[in-house]
Amino acid sequence: MLKSILKGSAATLIASGIMAGAASAEEIRIYFNAGHGYDTYLEVFEEFEADNPGWTVAFERYQWPDLRTKLVADFAAGNPPDLVAEPGAWVPEFAQQGLLYNLDDLAARDRAEFDYPGDWQDASVEKNTVDGSLYGVQIHLTCATLLYNVDMLKEAGYDNPPTNWAEFREIAKATTRNGVFGFAPNAVWAYSMPWVMQNGGRYYDPETGKIAFGSEAAAEGVQFLSDLIHEDRSAPVPVTGADYEGPQRLFTAGRAAMIITGPWDINPIRTGNPDLNWAVAPSLKEVEQATIQGGVSLMIPKDAQYPEQAWDLIKRLTAVDVEVATSLQYSMTMPRKSWLNDPEVQADPILGQFGACLPYSRDVTLELRQAGKYNPAIDEVLNGAIDEVLFANEPAAEVLAAAEDEANAILANE
Amino acid sequence: MARKDNHTTASKLLIYPLLAFFVLMAVLPFLYMVSLSLQSDAEMFSGQVVVIPESLQFSNYVTIWEKAPFARFMLNSLIVAGTITLLHVLFDPLIGYVFAKMEFPGKRLMFVSLLATLMIPFFIRLIPLYVMTAEMGLLNTYPGLILPFAMSAFGIFLMRQFIMPIPDDLVAAARLDGASEFRIFIDIILPQLKPAIATLALLTFVFQFNEFIWPLVAVSSESMRPITTGLTLFNQEFFTQWNLTAVGGMLLFLPCFLLFVIMQRYFVQSVMLSGMK
Amino acid sequence: MTYKTRRTLTAYAFLSPAIVYFLIYFFWPIAIEFWASFRSGQPLIGDSAFVGLKNYAHILNDRLAIKAIKATLIYAIGSVVFTLVLALGLSALLVGPVRARNGIRAILFFPYIISFVISALMWRAILDPYTGLLNAALAKVGLPQQFWLVDPDTAIWTLIAVSVWKDLGYAVLIYIAAIQGIPAHLYEAARMDGARRHHLFRDITLPLLMPTTLFLAVVIMITSLQEMALPYLMTQGGPANATRLYSLHVYETAFQGLNIGYASALSFAMFMLILLITWAQFKLLHRDIRHV
Q1: Does the keyword rRNA-binding apply (chain C) (predicted)?
Q2: Would you say domain C55-286 falls under CATH 3.40.50.2300?
């Protein structure tokens, strides 16, 4: 009903626009993740079309790696879209190459009605700032934290989830049975980083300008994870692959008591096993409380045809009411401070818990990207090293120290 | 026709289990795909091994058409892969004949250059091809999707290798009779090439029907997508909608399978003609 | 006009559309990338500068590239050898008096016609050590769990198996088409000379299949040396980079690393290697065909 009214009014507006000679058939092109074609966003596009007679939104959806391939080809052809969603690492990269539109002026102009960056959590602003200028606006902000099977923990005699490593290890052991694991880790290297960061380690040290994942603290974190797998046998060897589903599937099947994941797994778990009694816990605290952060930003290419309209769409897509509606409907966490303070969000036990971990979550490679030295080859080196520890049970200290040297050699070579 | 001697019961005991093994392995992922395509969302996310779904969700086969314009995707795939296949069937045998049976200066160099084009991965040519296609104004059009694959060294090489065993004296005799090269090709070579051309058509179609990366970059509207890139619309950021993806797999499978069944006639026919049973 | 000139002109007339096409759609883009391989910065996308052979020299310092070359050679040789041996054996069986051979042939070709993307994902799901079909089956009969794709030592062989699985039906198809193209009179002549059945295979079929064998060996070798989709879909190059095949490394260098100059250099280095291997294959397998 609403849609048809919107469409009807759009038609009249177009007609009147043509009469006035103002409107022409213009198309604004958007690249988005295929998983994020939420109804709430589609409604925003319809509203935009209704408010801007003669304009259509070409909403193109791709998987992240595909989107990236297409975008790179578009930059080469000088034919980029007007608005692009990115999975949290591309803004500094493309901005440093002069391929993105500087948003400072637009943000300053509209601050009264649209408080960017004021209403955004600091971490999400930092990610989109390059050399002091804004080049992107965060639309989703996520973090991975602990999910646990309430019944399995109770059965093993624990009423509360673990808060530090010792408790975690104990509970993982106690909940492991034949064919059931206390903890199911994810094979992607970034999921080892919460352990590194909780122990005070980091990926890159901006003070020395060097890669730091070979430190003792970092190695201890990865070794702890490896010991769960190889010594305690309370965790399975993670399965490599292109997807992130492995641990979630074990958790949903009741074959893993704990996993670490983000809000995107909420719906698959609820669908796969509606009876599962599970909850979300704050991230563990060893030396410090920390976890990994993810999310999506919107950016406008420098050669975009319609940056003004793209900015208008950014404002509409990140409006607080859109954020709240989207997060409640699709279990997604959002970057705006007023979203986190929204009573409906606070009242949702699972969303609220994920929201609570956002402030202490960290974007692992951010510091390196901001230094303009990010190179995916370094991720590959770290990925290979973590694999060697987790799959082949090599000692973390040696492997990571060697990987750090190799990564620093790559940095020096650039 | 003494041939029973080496097909003893013993060798049969060995042959049939062996064939059964290969047949089983060949269909295993297919059967799994069929099973997945009939699973409910709950079964798909359950993390349990589901072989036979509890209730067959034929509705998945309906859902997919509602979620995206799959009829259009199918049409796009058929137009693009069909045209490319036709172009290959028209050009490759003739060019293969030139390389197999004709002598001319520069033949070696040209053949080596032709083979060399197979040795650079497609994605390396991707950006220049994209820029070129954009400049021609062919992005998001059928010609833009078809042209980069209109010819390939693979098909020409395949045809050349099939034409080579055809006895030279047949060709030489026709040349002595004053037949033009084109006539020789049509009257002598082509009739022998039926199974080879059927193979070429099938392989080309299957390959193009499954092409992913070029339509990914060259198409910019949903209505021009082929099935392959259309399928990626279902996958979420961090998990795959397995059941619908499997339905898509069935959609990709069926036209290729149909073509195979049609082409199989040519293989069976020529077995009877060659009489080597 | 002599016969020779006329024949040359005819040949070129037949080839002219192909020559024009390949110049535009293959050699021009390849030339552009070749140009990029001597540049640093962002050739094709942004600013870049000529650096001579630096990109090529860097390959020797790229540990992942060296590791990838080794894995790729194992993968390619394994795929070619296993595919050809099995395909030849199966084709010989399937042109003989075997029950339901058309059906068997059709089923063997299934792996080639199921979308490769889908079948790679199916295999990954089937081979998953914890939630996969095969391990569930092994557990049922009391056999230990297998870590096919998870163990760095077995992962590459698992990929080879999947690649053989995929190409087998296609190689069988081509072999059978080739066997059927062999003129019947050759067999009849030999039979009249009193040749026995398995001699017919060895003396007539096998030599006449050499062009086909060469074709399959060259094509499967070339495509395997450039394989990217399989590790991309099944392992993302892991575990511990054991299945990081060369093309995957190049693709990630180009599109994830945005290092297009270096990625081009990597490609042309691989090109030289493939050229060398293909040349060797022609030397080994390319024989004159003598008709009986």
Answers
A1: no
A2: no
